[in-house]
Structure prediction request, 578 residues.
Amino acid sequence: MKALTLSLILLLPCFATAQNNAQHYKDSLQNLIAHSEGEVKLKAYRKLANIYYAESRADSLKMDTLLVLYNQLFDEAGLQNNIEFQGIARVNTLGALANCQAFDKVIKRAPKYLDYFEKKEAWKYYFVIYNKIIEAYLWTDDYNAGLAKAKEMYEKAKKYENNVGLGLSLYMISNAYGFMSRNEEEEKYMRESIEILKKEDVTMLPFVASGYYYLCQSLMSQERYKDALLEAKEFEKINLLYEEASRSKQPTTWSNLYRILFLAYIGVEDFDNAEMYYLKLERINGGVKDEISIAQGWATIYEGRKQYEKALEMLDKEIALHSDINSVEINVNIPKRKVLVLAKMGRAMDVYNLYSQIFDANNTIRDTEFNANLDELRTQYEVDKITAEKERNRNYFLFALGGCILLASALIIWIYYSRKIVRKNRGLYLQIKEQDRLAEEMEQAREENRKLRLLLKDEVAVSPEDDDDIFFGRLTVLMKEQQLYTNSEISRQEIAEQIGLSDRRLHDCVKNNTGMGFTEYINNLRLSHSRELLSRLNENLTIEAIALDSGFNSRITFYRLFREKYGLSPKQFKQFVK
Prediction:
């Protein structure tokens, strides 16, 4: 125990040194970015981003830093007109988001990136970004959207006559069908993709290697194990070319190949070769999940060889590994496989006991799932209830807001037209006052002319028109002094007798001097008198009283004649009196 404690104490400085070294390297790259130019600066950005990329999956703050670095790399590459590093920045941004399962952000950002690289005609990055969108749809189980996007990508590739785009779009169409378990279509499109991409440059080799992996999986899903073994030979050739081109080991592609060969040999019951490739898998893989896969594989091999005790040992190991990660596999799936092995061994009692456990586990799972579903339904009900209430309140608010807007609009329109009417009425009022002034000046001129004619009456012969003018003068004086027009019952004959004329002669006299008939003349005098009454600020007379005092029998007649002559009502006229 002391030795262990001492070892840990001795190791602590090593950990601190490693952390210090990593931070020192980051600081060096930051310093290089700040003091360098050109491609050196771009490469420093990329190296620093690669460090944060590896650390970002478990640390959201480092993910934020990583995204900032990629944006800075993109901007700097743009200043240098380096489309390659711009493409690297955008593709790796989407890759980092997908690595953290932020697929919604990939779907949201990618279309903007597509537009940019389409305008730049940078097809390599354009179609890789298309792949990222499709992968995001597939990993969120929206297979139809992913398939539709892959077909859209294919049409774009045809439009631009781009073989890389055609190969990658066929690759993604195949993947979409694979997610849907439509294996024949998956196989068809993956073969077409491989044939196109094999003819392109070495940068497409990773896609070709992945293509062979998915093609072999599709064939085995159709139980065509011999065909899968044939394609695995081509897969191996591609892996060798890939390592040669990249000048580095590619453990992932070799792991995929060995897994295919293992499963294919299991399928044809060649357990020796299956064991050989499983041993190779063990040397490459690590971690709990890979240990589970290896234990499962050994259980399959031992069962195929009828080494049932060893098979049971591996199944028990698999159960133990699953329990470490709290997997539900230990409750049903693995015990079912144990039942088959025990049945082959003739251990009926063990089969019975294990099936009883499986039955109880199934009931427990079913009860758990039922309760979970019930809780989910309750939660969904509460969420829907809250959402509905929010929606109802929102609708009430929008309805009230709409009503307020309508009322405000109506008020604005009313104010606008009221002001417009007031302006018009004010203009009419001023026009009436101007007409009064002109009429008064004309009356004064007419009076002076009449007086002059009276002075010359004995010296100059008087014409009938002069007589009309003289009699009209008498009529005017009579109306001003006695205001006969205010008597609604007064007749033309009574007025004619007072100035010494016949009824007909009075009509002609008025007509010749005013151009109006006698009734119109009297109504004009009444309207003028009503305006005088309306203009009196100290008298609070009603409109009806003013109509009667002016000689009108009816308020309606008074309103009609007033509006016809002046263009506004008596009430409106009174509003402008000061």
